[in-house]
Design brief:
Length: 281
């Protein structure tokens, strides 16, 4: 049997159309500041996509590009300016940052009410407590995909592979809040295969092509691939051996066209929410 392929791209289009509709009812356009530091080619592609999403949603995009050798002061100054800029509702500092810049310091400088990535400790704390105003974009996108396909994590065993602050940890929290039993695996987990075989819902967010093979997936499991890797041929791929695993799983997300577009749609949703809070009725 072959798994249902969960179409994150189509769902993202639907979500963005809804945001456009909601945003058009506000008294001014929502504004998103996107700060890119340096010339990482992948980041440039991602930022361009975000600009396109903004245009589609009726969100004003304020683009800032700082050079590769920008200092931490330069970045902090710009963040501070955006914190105080009335037309900007949300601020996104594209990661990764060049090595001379301390990511933590920069993320903590973003005003929590403009932190549409939900990376600030204040927002992370709210996520832990199940009180998030902004949900982190990638995990929130995964939850939307599950809901769209009628998959309820409640009572299921979810295995999250990867423990990053951006995906793995918050992903586990959102699943937990929907009553899943959650296991988080990482590079020091002794028997990854045995853990993965327990999963009713398997989420991989590691960044290692071919990590999840068909023998690691329980027949009928739901498989979500969050990774964004390039294989030897330079082709975009995830952690999951898609061809083989889709013969075992019941549902699976592709890369590209799965979680990525939904991550971006959730950024638009958070920007709308930020604007709604800040714009008088
Ligand atoms: N601050 N930095 C901040 N927030 C984020 O949430 C991100 N990330 C990661 C990189 N740095 C960040 C993203 O948005 C990765 N990421 C991301 C999101 C979406 C897509 C890729 C990366 C995406 O849309 N992927 C498309 C293919 C794009 C392509 O052709 O390269 C897809 O269909 O999966």
């Amino acid at each position: 049997m072959s798994a249902v392929i969960m179409d994150g791209k189509a769902l993202a289009e639907k979500v963005k159309a809804q945001i456009r509709e909601k945003a058009s009812k506000l008294r001014r356009q929502p504004g998103l500041a996107v700060i890119l530091v340096g010339d990482n080619p992948a980041s440039q592609v991602y930022v361009r996509n975000k600009e396109r999403d903004c245009a589609q949603c009726g969100i004003m995009c304020y683009d800032y590009h700082l050079p590769q050798d920008a200092s931490q002061e330069d970045v902090l100054d710009l963040v501070e300016k955006m914190n105080n800029y009335g037309a900007v509702d949300g601020i996104l500092v594209q990661l990764p940052l060049p090595e001379q810049i301390d990511e933590r310091v920069v993320l903590e400088a973003i005003a929590p009410d403009k932190d549409v990535d939900a990376f600030h400790p204040e927002n992370v704390g709210r996520i832990m407590q199940g009180q998030a105003y902004y949900k982190p974009c990638t995990p929130a996108g995964v939850m939307e995909i599950l809901h769209e396909y009628g998959i309820d994590p409640g009572g299921k065993h979810c295995v999250v592979v990867g423990r990053s602050n951006i995906v793995g940890k918050p992903m586990a929290m959102l699943l937990l809040h929907e009553n899943a039993t959650v296991t988080i695996c990482h590079s020091r987990t002794p028997d990854l295969k045995a853990q993965c075989l327990q999963a009713d819902i398997l989420v991989s967010a590691v960044g290692k092509t071919g990590l999840i093979t068909a023998d690691m997936v329980k027949p009928g499991a739901v498989v979500i691939d969050v990774a964004m890797n390039r294989n030897e041929a330079g082709k975009l791929c995830g952690d999951v051996d898609f061809a083989a695993v889709s013969q075992v799983a019941s549902y699976i997300t592709p890369v590209p066209g799965g979680v990525g577009p939904m991550t971006r749609a959730m950024l638009m949703e958070n920007t709308y929410k930020a604007a709604k809070c800040r714009i008088p009725k």
